Amino acid sequence: MNMKRDFFGTTADGRQVHVFTLKNARGESARILDLGGTVQSLLIRGRGGKLIDVALGFDTPGEYLAKGGYLGAIVGRYANRIGGARFALNGKEFRLYPNDGKNHLHGGKEGFDKKVWEAEPDGGRLKLRLFSPHMDEGYPGNFGVEVTYAFSDDGGLIIDYLAKSDMDTVVNLTNHCYFNLRGCGDILSHELKINARSMLPTDAGLIPTGEIKSVEGTPFDFTEFKSIGRDIEADDPQLAVAGGYDHNFCLEEGYKKACELFCDESGILMEVFTDMPGVQFYSGNFLSGISGKGGRIYGKRFGLCLETQHYPDSVNKPHFPSPVLKAGALFRSRTVYKFGAR
Ligand code: BGC
Predict the structure, then answer these.
(1) How is residue 322 annotated by DSSP?
(2) Which of 28, 260, 271, 307 is the catalytic position?
(3) Mean pLDDT calculated for residue range 203-212
(4) Pocket flag, ligand 1, residue 53 (CB < 6 Å)
(5) Which residue, 23, 95, 321, 342, shows the most beta carbons closer than 10 Å to its own?
(6) DSSP single-letter state for residue 83
(7) pTM value?
(8) Cβ contact 177:304 at 8 Å
(9) SS3 content of the chain, % helix, strand, coil (to 5)
């Protein structure tokens, strides 16, 4: 594993952005920006050794800030949605910025994806640090976060999250990579397996209703490998609500394999390991023909996200695993996206 640092570009407000290239012994590489802690590209060897870029992204900092979609970014303080953009903690109500209708999405207006993080190479790993002051976007507590990326010789993109706050607060950190294991076109023929027996139905604003529903006999059953396209157009009220898959799947406790994604055309298999209680499977329904790296057009369902996380709106659902971080306590979590060819 080795690393190099290059200039990537300047934002409209004059911030300099750098790109760090982490290379492994197989000659595969991950390019990470200090802007948003963003995975800008992931060159992975497919069947026969060909390098394929499996992550969607942009060529300039300005596009990351203007085009939206959270491509490859670290999302925080609270990934996914908070209903009514408010929550109560220790008897006090906190109001957040409503940037998704009346709800709060992915940390708000100027979330972690839009910040330039302090970057420090540490051996072959990249440490990224960010400080978020008390009441930033409405969240309580002076909050420090450190994300470490490593890219192992056996194809594992390892993401370690650490966070601490001086007041009780909430935390939900994720990476928002859009994967396409053949490097182009849509992802409907990708085969997906999710080790989850239940999922969270949502209302029209994609806020969980509170029900934890069995996937059995529904289009949400990915307990065995199934192509994403197989049931995506099925007549199902939950698919209709989100225009495809955009739901949290409930995982077992502890560190485990959460998902496997396979593309027969490239031969690339991606396994997702995490200690988080949920994973949001988002089938790229809102991608609407934006131009990405090298002028490539990203149409509807040209990438998919597997965002390891706390359940959405868990700040307002006491029966969901708690996202509360106590003052002075250390939040620690790991997610690994592991690639190999078959
Ligand atoms: C959400 C989608 C949203 C997308 C981009 C995903 O994590 O689940 O609903 O459109 O992020 O913001």
Answers:
(1) P
(2) 307
(3) 98
(4) no
(5) 23
(6) G
(7) 0.98
(8) no
(9) 10, 45, 45
